[in-house]
């Protein structure tokens, strides 16, 4: 059974950092492209970053240079290191693969506020 469990969210001041984790029970996890997405209040879910099985990464322009996606295939886990956080980064963050599955986890809330 597929399961995605995101964690690590919380409140952070502007300029602060946060590290998100996603434990994924996906068959052949090490072979799939994994990604982070986010959904801000009143907005559609958007792609944030992705990482291939070999570790190549791609980022949305809005987070490039501030966020780092990584993965640990031995733990079936993908991470998102977020630095220099801005209020506009406030959102619920989700992980999924590419192409996305119909199933989504519960996400983890990140709130950036002074």
List keywords for this structure.
114 residues, mainly beta, 6-stranded mixed sheet, 4-stranded antiparallel sheet, 0% helix
Q: How do the strands and helices of this protein lay out in sequence?
A:
Blueprint lengths: L2 E5 L2 E3 L5 E8 L7 E7 L6 E6 L5 E3 L7 E6 L4 E6 L8 E8 L9 E5 L2
Parallel strand pairs: 2-10
Antiparallel strand pairs: 1-3, 3-8, 4-5, 4-9, 5-6, 7-8, 9-10
Report on the architecture of this protein:
- There is one protein chain.
- By secondary structure, this protein is an all-beta fold.
- 0% of the residues lie in helices and 50% in strands.
- The strands form two sheets. Strands 2-10-9-4-5-6 form a six-stranded mixed β-sheet, with no helix packed on it. The protein has a four-stranded antiparallel β-sheet with strand order 1-3-8-7, with no helix packed on it.
- It is globular.
